Predict the structure.
Amino acid sequence: MNERYREAGNKGRKKINLEPDDLVWLHLRKDRFPDLRKSKLMPRADGPFKIIEKINDNAYKLELHLEFGVSPTFNIADLKPYLREEDELESRTTPLQEGEDDEDISPMLTSDTTSVVMHGPLTRARARQLNQQERNMKAMGTSKGEEDSKGGV
């Protein structure tokens, strides 16, 4: 009977296996990080943080900054794997499909690409923005390189 209860309880649970040196997002619980979660509008997660040690399947030790002032050991429920841009799953929609309105991105590519000093935690949204800026800068660099090679012929 207990096995049936265990199977029912674990039915939708995903088994996440993290290893040392993996990067993870840390869920900032209100009871554990009261200064970082004073408002609903403050970030719920911070990171990415590197895993230093795997204690068991449920507990991991992270490389935390001293400013957090808490134990670096966390339950798997507070951790989410950090997916780099190339690791993220493909979107269900594909860009530039016929019959759809596509945004003109040429003004974004010609904008000033000065570096910005960041203040505060690196949230998922901020990480996405940084990846987008990096891709735009790479795209501008390759398009300029193509123009230079065509002009030299």
Q: What stands out?
A: The first strand starts at residue 23 and ends at 27. Residues 114-151 form one domain. The CA atoms of residues 12 and 87 lie 23 Å apart. The mean pLDDT is 80.
